[in-house]
Amino acid sequence: MADASVLPPATAISSSVIELSGLSKNFGQVQALRDVSLSVPAGITGLLGPNGSGKSTMIKILLGLVQASSGHGTVLGRDIYRDGKAIRADVGFMPEDDCYISGISGVEMVHFAACLNGYPSAEALRRAHEVLDYCGAEEERYREVDTYSTGMRQKLKFAQALVHDPALLILDEPTSGLDPDERQLLLKRISSLAEKSNISVLISTHILPDVQQICDQAIVIATGEVRRADSIENLNRPTIPSIEIRVVGDVAVFHDTVLAAGIEVMETSEDRFVLADPHGSLAEQVWPLARQADVGIRSLVPARTSLDDVFLQAVQEAQVVEEAQVVEEGGGNDGNA
Amino acid sequence: MAMHDLGYRNWDEEARYQKTSWLHISRYGARLAWKSLWLKRLVLFSFFPAVFLAVFFFLYEQVASWPGIAEMLVPAIASVEGEDFIEVASAVQLTREEIQNPSEIPKKILQTYVNEKRPVYWSQMVYYFFARALGLVILIFGLISPRLISRDVQSRAFLLYFSRPITPFQYVLGKLVTIWLFLVLVFTLPALFSYLLGVLVSPSLAVLLSTWLLPFRILAATFLIALPTGLLALCLSSLVQEARYASFAWFAIWIVGYASYRILLATQISTAASTASLTTYTFISIYDVIHQNLQWVFGLVSFDTIKWFFLELVAISVISYLILMRRVTAPIRI
User: Fold this and answer.
1) How many CB atoms lie within 10 A of CB A268?
2) Does residue B16 belong to any structural domain of this protein?
3) Positive or negative torsion for Cα B307, B313, B314, B316
4) Closest partner residue to B167 among A85, A89, A98, by Cβ?
5) Across the interface, which of B152, B156, B164 has its CB nearest the CB of A116?
6) Smallest Cβ distance to A134: which of B8, B25, B159?
7) Of residues B261, B295, B259, the one with CA closest to residue B278
8) Which of A61, A291, B26, B243 is 20 to 30 A from B235 (CA-CA)?
């Protein structure tokens, strides 16, 4: 295992914090990750996927805790096979599970985490208090962690991940169990870490609004494969350019008028229409059509695909592919038989 | 939020102690264990055998200088030891003054005997000390070790350890050192301290020449006990999430082995079987196996006599270690 001290500074090596190429992981017959290739740039990245999609396995591989079955990868420019220890020295990890060391206080736990990274005890204690201040843990830091509420445990896990000033933070469900105020505070902290302190963040979460709010890019994993990996802006952009309009008046008449004009209605609900706009000139056509249908236009904006839609679409695609594979394998087996 | 919130600040401190960071696992482990009132009582109680050891060293070294004692002891020892003693006594070289003052002769013989037999008696006494303290060590390990790994599995703290630059081996080492700290506290330090006391109360520092091997024997005995018992204790702790099951298994192994051995021994004796076959049953009792090995460490028996018992301890250590490493890495492999 490589010693972190003899390796070059992590950030100096590559502009991408994570680079994976053809990474696969099998647990016996189960294929947890299939040919995963991606490049995660600096900034905040959301890692999305349904339960059992391979997110946790991927995180463990990134931390060098689990060896991939095949493929290559680097984290902060360090090889995931050889430099696991050095990677973990530069990465802060906040696990999803409620994990703590029973019988010690909050500040002791954060101090302990810093000491495990090899920092001198006295300096580690000072730093533990500093990070707990930043995380908003007040006098409760002196209480035993066994007595903490879920929110306080989340803060503590965040503090221990941050205590050694990592170059990359991997947060697994960081906002679960937090009340709305605390959730917003934590999201602000994460944003500010990326913006002001040059810490890249990988957030694995099911809470899509969190990703929408703070992430620069998102990766959607389903059935062990990367289904989407792009900037949030690109993910929100519909595959076919379209506009979203809301109208006041007889909605049915407007609908018929639009169809009669040869415009594709992609989506409609109550007073809302999403109209395909492949040439980018639809906005000008809509006004005369509205006059013709005797309806008023309340709003007209470029249509955006929500992250929920992107996620659901990706998961459905993955399910279809998997089902097709199962059918194919079944057919193959029958044929063999 | 803090009154003077400075936001997040980067930290440029150097991680200088990465290679020894596992020591903090031991440090926090020992601190948590030390919270137990029972453990404090046991540690305190475990110093009593060392007091007896120190008293023995004191009496042994001073006995020849007390008036009237030599005249009483020399015939007694001669009747017990026979030829051995006569051989030692006949080698005594008397000075002119001593021949002129015959009352000093028993004292001189006793002193020669004390000097001659010092390495044997000291070793024997330290062996007895270790043999008596072993029971206490089993109790102390039974209080500390069951929680060491099972607690981490139960509270999923292993994720906190292994997301740091810590290897499973370092984790195990940190946990082992936690229990070894207590072993050293109740075993090694009192024994070494008693030895030092023995040297200081002896007539001259020349005793160091005849007993210099003893501190090394004490360290070897500590290691001999520490490795198999420590690995076995951690192995049991790693197999369960509830510490009480590990405690139960720990004490069951010692008590059942000890009792079974004695029952079989009694049966053999009552059926007048040959004594040679009795030793085969010793394998059942780890307690007695350790005793046999301690006798070898303190030079009381030859290695040939105990080689199979030594191999048993090696086997216990290796098997426990392999199971332990597999169990420790299991949660992160899944």
Assistant:
1) 14
2) no
3) positive
4) A85
5) B164
6) B8
7) B261
8) A61
* Structural domain for B315, as ranges: 33-47+121-333
CA dist list (Å): A163 to A112, A132, A172, B155 = 10, 9, 17, 21
Q: How many residues does chain B have?
A: 334
Residue B19 lies in a domain: no
Cα B19 to Cα A119: distance, rounded to the nearest angstrom = 11
Q: pLDDT tens digits for chain A (337 residues)?
A: 334 444 444 444 447 899 999 999 998 888 889 999 999 999 999 999 888 888 989 999 999 888 899 999 999 999 999 998 999 999 999 998 878 888 899 999 999 999 999 999 999 999 999 999 999 888 899 999 989 998 899 999 999 999 999 999 999 999 988 889 999 999 999 999 999 888 999 999 888 899 999 999 999 998 889 988 889 888 888 878 888 899 998 888 999 998 888 888 887 888 888 888 877 778 888 888 899 889 999 988 888 888 888 888 888 888 888 788 777 776 655 544 3
Residue of A nearest to B18 (CA): A118
CA distance B330 to B334: 6
Question: Is residue B95 domain-resident?
Answer: no
How is residue B198 written in tokens?
A: 């023995």
Residues counted in chain A: 337
C-alpha–C-alpha distance, residues B260 and B266, integer Å: 10
Residue whose C-alpha is closest to residue A64's, from A84, A91, A90: A84
Chain B contacts of A95, Cβ < 8 Å? 156, 159-160, 163
Q: Are B178 and B259 in contact (CB under 8 A)?
A: no
CB contact under 8 A, A99 and B165: no
Beta-carbon separation of B164 and A5 below 8 A: no
Q: Which two tokens stand for residue B280?
A: 């085969």
For the beta sheet containing A200-204, the strands, ordered from the edge strand earlier in sequence to the opposite edge, are: A91-94, A168-172, A200-204, A44-48, A217-222, A225-231
With 0-12 CB in 10 A as exposed, 13-18 as middle and 19+ as buried, what is B121? middle
Domains of chain A by start residue, with CATH: 4-235 (3.40.50.300), 238-302 (3.30.70.100)
How many angstroms separate the CA atoms of B288 and B257, rounded? 9
Residues of chain A in contact with residue B24, where contact means CB-CB under 8 angstroms, are 112, 115-116, 121
**Residue A223, CA distances (Å) to A52, A75, A227, A313 in order:** 7, 23, 9, 13
pTM of the model: 0.83
CA angle A156, A161, A167 (to 5 degrees): 150
Question: Would you say residue B89 lies in a domain?
Answer: no
Cα of B106 vs its chain's centroid, Å: 37
Whole-number Å distance between alpha carbons of A104 and A159? 15
3-state secondary structure of B256: helix
Residue window 141-170, chain B: list those with CB within 8 Å of chain A.
Answer: 151-152, 154-167
For the question of an ipTM over 0.90, the answer is: no
